[in-house]
Every structure is written in C-alpha cells, then in structure tokens.
Amino acid sequence: MGALLVLVTACGGGSDKDSGKGGDSSGRVGNAASQAVVTVSPKAGAKGVATSGVLKVTAAQGKLTTVTVQDDKGVAVEGKISADGGSWEPLHHLAASTLYKVHAVAKDKDGRQSAKDASFTTLVPKNTFIGHYTPEDKSTVGVGMPVSLKFTRGITNPEVVEKAIKVTAVPAVPIEGHWFGNDRLDFRPEKYWAPGTKVTVALNLDGVEGRPGVYGKQAKTVSFTIGRSQVSTVDATAKRMKIVRDGVQIKDIPITAGAPSSTTYNGQMVISEKYKVTRMDGATVGFGGEYDIKDVPHAMRLSTSGTFIHGNYWASAGTFGSQNVSHGCVSLRDVRGGGDKDAPARWFFENSLIGDVVVVEKSDDKQIAPDNGLNGWNMSWAEWTK
C-alpha cells in the first residue's frame, strides 16, 4: 500500500505551483484572445453617411491584414492599407444611397487574429448633377473629336469631379482635361487622335460632391472609335478647300467664305453636328432679318455661335472660288433639296464624320475661341494643361 501510494502521487504531476494554470511551463499563451482591436468608422448601422472623408478602418495593438468593403451588389471599393498596417482608407469616393459592408482582420504581435464586420448606408442627396457627354457611345468619329462634358450644375469642386472621370485610349496616349468655365470639362491628347484609336470614358460621378450639397449621380462607361484621318483646310483668300485624308489630298473644292462685313473665324474647327437640311435664321445669330433660309442643305456645325460648313443653292455657280459672300459660314455649291449627287456639298457631307477637322486660314478675322464649339485644339498643349 505504501508503494502504491507513492506511485499514484508521482502520476499526479506535482503541486499546483508547478501546474502553470492558463498555459504551459514555457510561458507561452495558449487560447488567449488577440490583443488587436479593429475599429470601423462610421459606426455600424449608421445612415446618411457622407460619400467621402468618413470611411476609415484602423487597428490598435496590431496590424491590418485584410480589409474588404463592398456595396450591396458585391462591387468592391478600392482601398489601401497604410505601410505600418495601422489604417485603411478608400482610394475614391463612395456612391450615394448605397449600403456598404465592411470586413476587416488584424493580427497582434503574437499572430492572433481579430475580425470586425460592420455595415452602413450613405446619404440620399437632395440635389444632383449629371454630365451630358460628347461623342455618343459606340460611335465612330474623326481625329479631332474631344471628350466634352457639359454639367447640369456649376461645379465648385473641379478637382474632385475631374478625378472621378477617367479617359483612356488604346493605343495609349497622354490625355488631359481642361475646364471652360465651371460647367464644361473637355479631354484631349496633345495632337489629333491616331486613326483606329479606341477611347473609353469612365464616369464615376455617383456620390461626388460637385458643389456643396450637390452630388453626381452617374456611374457609366462609354466608348468610341477614331475613324480615318480627314483634315480639310479652307484658304479664305484663295476661296478653295483642300481635303486631306490619311495624309493624301483627295479633293480641292471651290468655296465661298464670309463677306468682308461678316468674315469667317480662323482656326481649327471640329464638326460637331450634321444635318441633311436645316433652317438658318439670321435673327438667332445677331444678323437681324438679313436672311432666313428654311432649307439649307448638307449643313455641318463648326461653332456654337453659328458657324457652319454647308451647301448653298442660292448663289450662282460662278461665286464659288471667286467671291466671299456668306455671313461667316463656309459654303459649297449645292442644289435645293440636296439631290445632286455630283454637287461638292453633297460629296463633302457624305464623306465627313462628326469629329473631322476643318481649318480656316487667311481670313480677315480673329482666331475662333477654343470653347466656341469643340475647338480646344486652338490652345497650345501648355495652355491646355496648366
């Protein structure tokens, strides 16, 4: 019995002092909780959260290893964990009127994980804006076509709005934006687009605060293709227009430009609209009742202020190439109704794209303003980018 008692005592493992309660004899922690503390701002369940400047995830007594933020459609929000692992912030603004879910994980110095999940809803804006864009989605345009956005409200936070718009091209080329006033933003490369270029415009405006209390509501991507190169040069003194396509002159057409009392602007102008027939009323462009022609054929707009290149059936055939008689437009010989397939105006209309360039030289007028139409090419690259 004495021997048995000693054996049992030996198998008991010693006294409480040696048992190492809560761990083992090495001093390592067993199943203790992680010391890392993850905090998500805004707090869980918050509503009416601002779309920028609020969302942030932090870790105390540890480092973040994973942070995912998704909207209710599963679209992830891009973000970045700081170099020290102490915080995460989104790389761009959030969308308005949207439920977001946050999942974050951090590790403490002993490698133990701590997770945090939260959700919140962004504000519902009372006032919104959109950008009307040119050119149209999936269109094929000329080499001079810029991306032009006209906003429905004046923008007082232009840097934030411009940052939310991404214009890319294949093949890649540097593209920069330029503001005309507070409601128009155009993008272009330094030189005309190369033929065949594919351009994509990503409008990530949903939730952007363009001015205090006014938020964008567009989340849209549009694309267009650059067609062949066509640049037509009007010599207002010689009264002729030379059409160069892909580096080769294909036509030399007699024209009539603005009369001495109403000269045509000089400069690079982009065709922005095409009409097989349109009405031209002098009263709408400051010429009173001097003319009102209800059926101008083959008209293509070159400026917002009313400069067109169009067909002309009312002047004699001998006018073209010999006299400048228009009210500031460039006119080509045509027939009423535009039915003559051999008329120069019809040929030019059918062989022109929106986005083609018409350059006017040697006119007794000033250079056209870059915001008068899609005519930002009249600014140097240094002016455009400053």
Please provide a written account of the structure.
The structure is a single chain. By secondary structure, this protein is mainly beta. It folds into three domains: 85 residues, Immunoglobulin-like (Sandwich); 100 residues, Immunoglobulin-like (Sandwich), CATH 2.60.40; 156 residues, Beta Barrel (L,D-transpeptidase catalytic domain-like). It contains four helices and 27 strands. Strands 21-20-19-27-22 form a five-stranded mixed sheet, with no helix packed on it. The chain has a four-stranded antiparallel sheet with strand order 1-2-5-4, with no helix packed on it. The longest helix has 10 residues. It starts with a helix and ends with a helix.
